[in-house]
Amino acid sequence: MNKHQIETLLSSFTGSDVSSPFGPDALVYKVKGKMYALVSQNEDIARVTVKCKPEDGEVLVSQFDSISPGYYMNKRHWITIKLCGEVDSTLLTDLAHHSYQLVVAKLKKVERESLLINGG
């Protein structure tokens, strides 16, 4: 999966908003104002940072050279993945969905319900 494909996937999630609050070097993906992913913009090898359960992050970091604790993020709850081909598209898709779902699960009930009403 390349940078354009992961950006398209992240943008497809219900209620997803994209912005550049940290400047042009990173696209931040949020749902209801809560970040669930960040995609680097100005690197030779693109990177995506996603939220994950701490125990899952530890396993992934130990299994893949291209996955590291979250760059500039809480390293316990975020991982950064180099989009260099080591991690297959299926796993990347699952990690992106899981990150989104972790954030949605922490939203207020009325916010979660509005996502369902509006297409999610």
The CATH top-level class label: Alpha Beta
Strand content: 25-35%
Point out poorly predicted stretches: none
Helix content: 25-40%
Pfam families: YjbR (PF04237)
GO molecular function, one term: DNA binding
Protein name: MmcQ/YjbR family DNA-binding protein
Organism: Photobacterium sanguinicancri
Describe the overall structure.
The structure is a single chain. This protein has helices spanning 3-11, 54-63, 89-105, 109-117; strands at 16-19, 26-31, 34-40, 47-51, 67-69, 78-82. It has 120 residues and is an alpha+beta fold.
Structural descriptors:
single chain, 120 residues, alpha+beta, Aspartate Aminotransferase, domain 1, six-stranded antiparallel sheet, 4 helices, 6 strands
Summarize the structure.
With 120 residues, this protein is α+β, with helices and mostly antiparallel strands.
Could you outline the blueprint of secondary structure elements for this entry?
Elements: H1 3-11, E1 16-19, E2 26-31, E3 34-40, E4 47-51, H2 54-63, E5 67-69, E6 78-82, H3 89-105, H4 109-117
Antiparallel strand pairs: 1-2, 2-3, 3-4, 4-6, 5-6
